[in-house]
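LOG
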Amino acid sequence: MPLPIVLVPGIGDDERKVRMLAARVEKAGRRPLAIAPQPSDGTVSIETLAQLLSERIDAALGAEAPFDLFGFSMGGIVSRCYLQQMGGLARVRRFVTLATPHRGTWLAFRYPSLPAVQQMRPSSAFLTALNDEMHLLEQIAFTSLWSPLDLTIMPASSSALPVGRSLRVISPWHGTLLYDPNVLRQAMAALNGELRNAKPSPNGGAASGAA
């Protein structure tokens, strides 16, 4: 039986942000479970949001059932915290991120008073610790999707990690990525293990594939 797919949106989002992807998940015969830990406005730490994500997954699926995981923007960082620091790797088969600031974004310096945003600055203590253990993601099928036209994740290549597989998608505007049919198609292909264009990420850099 196909595994459910947990969908985690980003900063300032609620479950409505992933509704179009959820519809594609349902059309593919799989169960979507959209979870947007709150508050998602950056006023609480990523660890707090990851703990809330863990609790809601357990409440919806039980404490041991396997699933696939998708994270958009900050939702990908929250998901990585859950996977790498809270035991989630034992349950997840495939993990896909879209426009996630894995190595930070310079835009985070515009909001110095928000804890979660501070954690998404390049070379923050939080991201440094998380990325020191990025090799843990090699235990599962991990794919990072990113757009070179993303002006929220700066530099845009921060959304690709040198582990797993990465795919460059050509789509403008960070906030509209989840409404782009091509991006949704690529995300769904990655979640189903059907992605053809992604390339293994070389050590120290991000690979790209034609979208």
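LOG (cont.) second protein
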Amino acid sequence: MSLFHFIRLFKQSTDLTPYQYVQRRRVEMAKKLLNQQNLTVLDISKQTGFQSSNYFSNIFCKYAGVTPTSYRKY
């Protein structure tokens, strides 16, 4: 199976590209960590596979609608 074909089938099944799916899963994991632990946002961004806390915050905001710090307060 070609990469293009895989991506097309994946998107048909999930309405997301594989990259978007991974980002969404990372954000869901980050939400759990923000609710359960007293880790810093930087620590959570690293644990969820993001190299930059700024990029993590941008992606988190894109999928969650709020910043990680704001999400933690709720």
